[in-house]
Amino acid sequence: MKIGIVCYPTFGGSGVVATELGIALADRGHEIHFITYKQPVRLELLSHNVHFHEVSVPDYALFHYQPYELALSSKLVDMVKLHKIELLHVHYAIPHAYAGYMAKQMLASENIHIPMVTTLHGTDITLVGNHPFYKPAVTFSINNSDVVTSVSQSLKDDTLRLFDIKKEIHVVPNFIDVVKHVNPFTECQRDLMAKPNERIITHISNFRPVKRITDIIEIFDRVQKEVPSKLLMVGEGPEKEKAEALCIAKGIENKVVFLGNSNEIDKILCFSDLFLLPSEKESFGLAALEAMVCGVPVISSNTGGLSEVNQHGFSGYLSDVGNVEEMAVNAVSILKDSEVLAKYKKQAREAAMKFDTKNIVPLYEEVYRIASNKV
Ligand code: GMT
After folding, report:
1. 190-355 CATH, one of 3.40.640.10, 3.40.50.2000, 3.40.50.720, 3.20.20.80
2. Most ligand 1 atoms within 8 A of CB, residue of 261, 286, 302, 306 to mutate
3. Exposed, middle or buried, 82 (CB in 10 Å: 0-12/13-18/19+)?
4. What is the pLDDT of residue 123?
5. Which atom of ligand 1 is nearest to the CA of 305?
6. Which ipTM value was assigned to this complex?
7. Cα gap 311→317, rounded to integer Å
8. pLDDT exceeds cutoff 80 at 95
9. Which residue's CA is the closest to the ligand 1 atom numbered 12?
10. What fold characterizes domain 2-175+356-372?
11. Given the CA of residue 12, which atom of ligand 1 is nearest to it?
């Protein structure tokens, strides 16, 4: 099929999933057109069946807010016509589902009927989309998508609870290429990061308030008193400065390394012993899955879809949001004994297997078939 994928091109989970999906679909013979304002960060190579079309929004002084949805929907119309795109798959409802719906209507007026699949990712429902300012438009665009998917059962339940949804929601979990991570421990350069006796604990995110970044410092502070360790903080975002200040206040700044955004998270996860994800909300927790497939056990909160990914007592442990004491105790129980750690590493990878790309991408192809039959 010729598929147009609309997503955020940044380091956010929805953009990463959309990009990896496009790459996997292209590998399976589909022609993929990414349509967004910048080349997606995980999209390194364009090829004969992976294309990128940039949405430009020229600044005009009259506008306090530049009309991105308008530019996106116009670009979608043009690209569908030019490349004979057969289906639009929009990731993150705001404003993509809305722009996609407008494009569909414009195309229909020219007798071009194109199905649209909307994938809900999390904060488009639980945080931003639920705001009264956006709710009517989000409800409308979900109800007017041809097929709606959510990345976890938990997100589906939240959507049905928070919005008046008339559509069936198909749960298609996020995925990971297990083969690509088949031997993650061969090229580890762990000695660059820590001494041989130190454990390496990692967190990767966009450092937004929802990630509870200061909980990570609180957990690590407790752990490093019991087990010699280093904390690697990967990513950029609004809570970073607060976290840096807390490290200084606790006198642990020489044990915490802030690495910024990275396109090489595999390399970082390769030498990590534990992953922390104490989020306030998490519809799925793609970062946890990326850690698990690299054999890194996860200490997380039990919010949202995290319990569908991280298996309590097997791939790691889950605790109530904010229970940093318990999270630290569980972390120490995994880290202090090398045999226990090795067991959890193996189990973390095992738990990731069911999310292999080869199991999940066909579910999206099935969704595309259903959507195509609707127009
Ligand atoms: O806040 C983020 O991590 C980014 C956000 C997004 O939509 O870009 O992530 C959401 O989508 C990811 C991919 O489906 C999920 O793995 C994350 O759990 C989800 N984030 C939240 O629900 C907070």
Report:
1. 3.40.50.2000
2. 286
3. exposed
4. 87
5. 18
6. 0.94
7. 7
8. yes
9. 13
10. Rossmann fold (3.40.50)
11. 8
